[in-house]
Amino acid sequence: MLIRTFVPRFFIKIKGVNTLVKDKSVLEMRNIHKSFPGVRALQGVDFTLCEGEIHALMGENGAGKSTLIKVLTGVYGKDEGQIFLKGTDNEVSIHSPQDAQRLGISTVYQEITLCPNLSVAENMYIGRTEGIGQNWKKMNRDADKILQSLDIPAKSTQQLASCSIAVQQMVAIARAVDMDCKVLILDEPTSSLDEQEVAKLFKLMRELKAKGVGIIFVTHFLDQVYEVCDKITVLRDGQLVGEYEIKELPRVQLVSKMLGKDLDDMSDIRSESATYDKEDASTLVFEANELVSDAGIKPFDFYIKKGEVNGFTGLLGSGRSECVRAIFGADRVLGGTVKKNGKTVKITKPLDAMKNGIAYLPEDRKVDGIVGDLSVRENIILALQVLKGFFKPFSKAETYKFAEEYIKLLGIKTASADTPIKSLSGGNQQKAILARWLLMNPEYLILDEPTRGIDVGTKVDIQKLVLKLASEGMSVTFISSETDEMLRTCSRLIVMRDRKVVGELSGDDLSQNKIMSTIAGGGRE
Amino acid sequence: MSANESSAKSGLGDRFKNMTDTNLLLTITIVVFFVMYIGAIVFQGKGFLKPQTFFNILNANAALIITSCGMSLVMITGGIDISVGGVVALVSMCCAVYLDYHGGNIFVAVLIALAIGLAFGIVQGFLVAYLDIQPFIVTLAGMFFARGMTTIVNTAPFNVQNEAFVALKETRVIVPGLGSVNKNGVYVNAYIEIGVIVALLTVIIMFCILRWTKQGRSFYAVGGNNQSALMLGINVKRTKFLSHLICGLLAGVGGFVYFLHVGSGSPSHASGMEMNAIASSIIGGTLLTGGVGNIAGTLFGVLSLSTIQNIVSSAGLDKAWWTGITIAAMLCLFLVIQSIVMSRKKKSR
Amino acid sequence: MQTNTQKPGIGKVGTKIFRQQIFIPIAALLLLAIFNLIRDPSFYKITFGYNNLGDPVLSGSLINILDYGSELAILAIGMTLVTAASGGQDISVGAAMAISGSVVLRVLCGTNTRPETLQAPIIVAFLVSCVVAMLFGAFNGVLVAYFKIQPMVATLILFTAGRSIAAWINNNELPIISDPSFGYWGGFIPGIPIPTPFFIAVACMIIIALVLRFTNLGLYTQAVGINESSSKLNGLNPAFIKFLSFVILGLCVAVTGFIKVSRFSTINYSVIAKDIEMDAILAVALGGNPLGGGKFNISASIIGAYVIQFLTTTLYALKVPSDALPAYKAVVVIILVVLSTPIVREWLNNLWKKMKSKQIKEVA
User: Fold this and answer.
1) CATH code linked to domain A2-263
2) ipTM above 0.85, yes or no
3) What is the CATH number of domain A264-357+443-525?
4) C229 — contact with chain A (CB < 8 Å)?
5) Can you tell me the distance from the alpha carbon of A510 to that of A487, in angstroms, rounded to the nearest whole number?
């Protein structure tokens, strides 16, 4: 592994070669370094992409995948290192996305980066065609042709905002495909697509591969990697772990390389979950009937018992988060009744839920969780303070006491309680937000993707914590995109598809296969 | 987009959803203008039926049309420029001083006007685009700077007597066939001023730029979502810079046209013009949040605004404060309508 | 009032002081003070005398700064809150002051424009103007908080219409109050040689300090300003907090409007409090508060307000005509804002580091 990492650099130093090392490669990145204040995001990463190859870039969140891609596409400048492209003799410098486009590198990002106010055709062509004038007729004709050939259900003249998210993603791919590129980067493009759309995308990727385009494919779905990719490069903590042929690397090994530890570490959680006391869990803590919000979910029923851990599962966009948001009153509730400890209560806004002892850790930490410029201390006490009331602020000493207690309890790594929370790492931010809700001492805790985008160690910590809290009598709803996490922690799973509850699994039914088949719908009704 | 335009004609209803935001707001504006003008004819008498009444609205508002075009452009790109009124005042004062005290040449005066506008556009554009400062703060400072400079150039208002200038000011372009017979039975030709021609040219040019050039579409893209625009390969900084530059330039042109209309320089000239320009753009269907707007709408915005002012003044509410209050009320109304229409539309998706 | 939460021990003492938010206005104050000391030391002369009512008064440039700066300081309190909560500024404060001033006169004069005696107690007039100003604040607040219009554009409406409304309240007549007790509030209370506005400002500062100490206004406002969506999920009502900040600013406007009309015992609708919005925004910016909202420090804004008045007085001492003042101030604003942009800051930091490393090398 070490040798792999060092060979190219060594090679350059000895021979002073300034062009592509291999004949077949279209792109080589050598010894890329990139730091942000407080974080060394990339430390000497090498990456090689060959012609006609689909190359998976794997790693946990925070491993440096997105940074590497953003360096390649000119969104970030690199601190050190070289990039070579086929067809150019010397090192290329990429300072902006335009540079990258001009050099034949096109990208489809995870979050949609199109302009919602423009038409579909404009989104496909803007910023990449020559000349001053805008020929609408020709553009619309060309766009329709491509849309048709890719089977995308959109009209060229439609305003992009009127398309569904999946179609918007397809338009972004259509744009990238049409750009006659040498390197195509797909950064988690499948997260908002359904199975058929994914299949369509894969067909397209294979066609491009046959044409000699090099494709960098970033995804979290291992199945997809093994379905289409030829090679895998694994990053961890900003460093290169290695580059492998897909055949040489079984899944288990890939996972352990991504995580940097053996799988055995994870299994001890499971044994703990067995200690959870089912006798005690008889009373209903929370119950909802025909609950529906304005976020577009179908009315659903729900309950949770004391000391129970249950979860919502389903694909991204299936309505998991919307359900718990409705429970918490975060979206506008349109109908349904809610009971807390058997009594009917009214929850129309988050404060109502908090008053009833419900806490909610939101899915998107940056947007909905942290209050970036405020200190860790202020972030931790915020919810309890709001609950206590506008005219009753905690004294400074009290807030320090609370903050320090939880910093210690959860092992939050921060310079002090007064450090702005935005300067903490993702995992520690998440712990601080968790501390915020635990401080409230809720009866019922909702965790929406608490493990997303944080390091493995913290993930395990959080899962252990959930089980510990449950054993102490707290009811927890746990949502995660990673099914094995759900299986490890939850004793009952509510399965969702197309914004509707389609099933409930517990006991022996809790298995990967059963979940998959329930999500898939067992023969499409 | 042509499909959407035809859908507008075939009735709103179900097609409402599929309309682009720009066309939807444009339609509202045009409907509002015609309703208002017809209302004026019905309630305020036949004066509004005479073509010359309409032309007088144009004559009085040529400068506003020009500056509003610039304003719309900046707003489409997601910014705002409140220095335009100040720039117009500064331009007319500088031109007045140059023409009168220095007995200057009219072409040089035009150049001065353009140079001042351009200078404001470049400096403000640079600060907004390349140093990433909020456009409102930059142009607020620009407004105060321009107003302050105007009094530094000359404190007292005065009329310009320069012969060439007066000749140009008095030039009237006859519009054939639309004249009317006055009380004495003499046929009077309908006319417009030079400024109106400049204004209409500006509208046409700006419309074409925004509709049929790549750069024009970039303005929309940046206003829609500047992060995405960057990823799509648009030079966001240059686009923002250009929007302010063109707005500044148009403020310069508007300043000269204003000067040509009033024929004097004064520190109190064009007071509140930035407000009128913003109001016209908003009434014309330009969204404050950027990305949506149409120059044709802006033209109708100016016309709606001045029609309502005419109605107010001919209704006998001649006191000065009514103008300010009506514009503010109308702006308020349209802001609220926009806010409601857009949120409704978002929900119906 | 609000302690700065900068973490100690980041770097050397020098950088620590430099990073303190309050450093900027104080440095500007010192700079201006030194400039005036060099230019003309008589700037600092304070004379004791008697005004035409026979009351003892202090006069001089410094007293002027204390007097007029106090108005600005009161406005800066409200403007800081609005800036922090909404991420924008209220540009209608000048116009709103004209309205509240007009209301005070209207209540005091009744139907007669030149009454011999006051038609209503001063306190009633003041309270009525408070209610009116808070209503206009609420109008701005509704547009910003509930209709989600950018603050500066929403307040542009009142900015244009405000002075017309003020004129309309008094039928465009110019009422004059002859009762001397009305003049105390903007001038001097008999026997006390220090201008009354200063005491009013101190009272406002104490009130806001108490409010920040005994309520969660500070925490809530900052949370909403930094991350609206997150605050909402923590049980806050962001729209209401924004609305509240505009109402508080309305109250500040009423107080300053009252001082303004008391100063002259009359009103000039188009001139009263002209361009004061610029000064108030400048005070907030000079106080080092981010104009995009979020964290705030009211004491820094208040010092900023006095610095602005210091600047104005200095410019007057330099014989700059009052109409041309905005041009100079605009330049100051731009310089300030440019210096506070991240891009320029980074560049300056690098420059500073380079100079330092050079020094170290030279020493070595």
Assistant:
1) 3.40.50.300
2) no
3) 3.40.50.300
4) yes
5) 7
